Amino acid sequence: SSAQEEEIVMKTTGRTPDLPRGTLDRAAFLALRDVVYAAPVAPSVASRAVGLCRSSRPEEKQATAFVRQYVAWGAGPRGSQNLVLAAKARALLDGRAAPTTTDVMAVATPILRHRVLPNHRALSDGVTADKIVAQLLSETAV
Questions:
Q1: What torsion, rounded to 10 degrees, do the Cα atoms 114, 119, 120, 126 define?
Q2: For residue 25, which phi and psi values (nearest 5 degrees)?
Q3: What is the pTM of this model?
Q4: If both were cysteines, with which of 25, 81, 103, 115 could 75 make a disulfide (CB 3.0 to 4.6 Å apart)?
């Protein structure tokens, strides 16, 4: 019957997942966050992050033809902030006290992919946010 089939579906298509256990408590997490905030950043690194985000905005003068053609909305100031924070974290994890512009470039895709909104033309041409970020990185090489 329909009821029996629904019961079979409900019993066989789901389970209670094992939730991951935290490895850090709140205090440890906040201490690590403070280490990232305390890491110094050179003005050139901050400038690189800001320049990358500004070049993703189609209305900016430094936007390329590719950005003007395919981007509806570019990364804002929070994109720049998060590029610097992620670059700092990457440098610290690599045993370095401060990030470089290479760190900014390395974290750009995961930081910017949801901050750069492809327009309708991009969608019809198969140009994704990841492709836009990759193009930005290649056009604004260090």
A1: -60
A2: -85, 175
A3: 0.82
A4: 115
